[in-house]
Write a structure and sequence with these properties.
Blueprint (H helix, E strand, L loop, with lengths): L1 H16 L4 H22 L24 H32 L5 H23 L4 H19 L7 H13 L21
Helix pairs in contact: 1-3, 2-3, 2-5, 3-4
């Protein structure tokens, strides 16, 4: 639930507080997500990496997983982590559309969504092999890798500049030399 809410709010936050600073917003979202997943990893016992080795028969009854106290500590990390991960996609797509201009935004979005599908498929395949606690470590490492890949990106707003230039050349120039939409009545020369 937090993921789509984060995605929906990211546009509002970007338009209000991060105008022409999408790189900063994306880095902030990744930082929040990394902190949330680091907390999840820290709050849970060391992961048995493979499900084959995840023997829970030795756990005493008073230390069973899923107690209400544990959920109180894990829930904020899950909510903030999910919202931050959800906010990265629209922000990354918008930043890529700006940085990748003149490549059409749809082409860059298709590349990102394709990579996302490959990553999601790999993560889904890993769920069958490794324990849930180990998946939190995998997610944390994925976020850190994405943050590392974000470091060399230089923020340039070529698309906005190019569209502004196109709008200026598309306007009609009337007989007075003014730029704007001119109607036949406006074309009379005033003396």
């Amino acid at each position: 639930v937090a993921n789509p809410i984060g995605g929906a709010l990211s546009g509002v936050i970007a338009d209000r507080y991060f105008v022409r600073r999408l790189h900063c917003l994306l880095a902030l979202c990744m930082g929040i997500a990394a902190l949330a997943f680091a907390a999840l990893v820290a709050l849970q016992p060391p992961p048995p990496w493979l499900l084959l080795h995840a023997n829970t028969s030795h756990v005493p009854p008073h230390e069973t997983r899923g107690s209400s106290t544990e959920i109180v500590y894990l829930l904020p990390s899950v909510i903030f982590g999910g919202a931050a991960i959800g906010a990265t996609m629209p922000t990354a797509l918008e930043l890529l559309a700006e940085v990748g201009h003149p490549l059409p935004p749809g082409a860059s979005a298709n590349i990102v969504v394709g990579l996302l599908q490959i990553t999601a498929t790999a993560n889904t395949a890993l769920v069958a092999v490794i324990s849930p606690q180990a998946m939190n470590v995998v997610m944390l490492l994925s976020i850190l890798l994405c943050a590392l890949l974000l470091l060399p990106v230089r923020e340039r707003y070529r698309r906005a500049r190019s569209e502004g230039e196109e709008r200026a050349t598309d306007c009609d120039v009337d007989d007075r030399g003014s730029i704007g939409d001119s109607s036949p009545d406006d074309r009379t020369v005033r003396g």
